[in-house]
Amino acid sequence: MHACPCAKHVPVKRVAIYLSVVAITGLKSNTIKTARSECWMEGRVYKHVSADGVPFDNSQCFYDWKLVEKWIDSLPAAIPRRKSA
Fold first, then answer.
1. Contact, 60 vs 16, CB < 8 A?
2. What UniProt keywords are attached to this protein's entry (predicted)?
3. Residues facing residue 14 across a β-bridge
4. Residues 6 or more apart in contact with residue 35 via CB below 8 angstroms
5. What is the Cα–Cα distance from 24 to 70, expressed in whole angstroms?
6. Region of residue 13 (left: phi > 0; alpha: psi -120 to 50; beta: else)
7. Is the dihedral of CA 39, 41, 45, 48 positive or negative?
8. Which H/E stretch holds residue 25?
9. Which residue from 27, 62, 69, 82 could staple onto 31, CB 3.0 to 4.6 Å apart?
10. Helices (H), strands (E): how many in the chain?
11. Are 18 and 32 in contact (CB under 8 A)?
């Protein structure tokens, strides 16, 4: 599992801000943004929310951190790369 030890102490299903997802999963914030736009299904892995029910692109997102962990586990192993001098 890729999560930090604090992940087992998170009692909620969804977390609201990048910092929580970063702390729980170890992902970088740009990785989260890219995955949200290219890989994750809105409404399942994350949800845009707003008080009036019509969220904008900059509205707050809630993330199902357990599904984020499953996504991480499903990724293929890293390919070894040559180091440049």
1. yes
2. DNA-binding
3. 64
4. 27, 68, 71
5. 13
6. alpha
7. positive
8. helix 18-25
9. 27
10. 3, 3
11. yes
CA–CA dist 11, 30 (Å, integer): 25
Of 40, 43, 48, 49, the closest CA to residue 70 belongs to 40
**HSE toward the beta carbon, residue 52, CA cutoff 13 A:** 4
Distance CA 20, CA 60 (A): 13
Query: Looking at domain 5-74, what is its CATH homologous superfamily?
Result: Putative excisionased domain DUF1233 (1.10.1660.60)
Q: What is the pLDDT of residues 8-22, one digit of tens each?
A: 555 566 676 656 778
- Coil, helix or strand for 66? helix
Burial tier of 7 (Cβ tally within 10 Å: 0-12, 13-18, 19+): middle
CB 2 within 8 A of CB 24: no
| pLDDT one-digit tens code per residue, 41-53 | 998 998 888 888 8
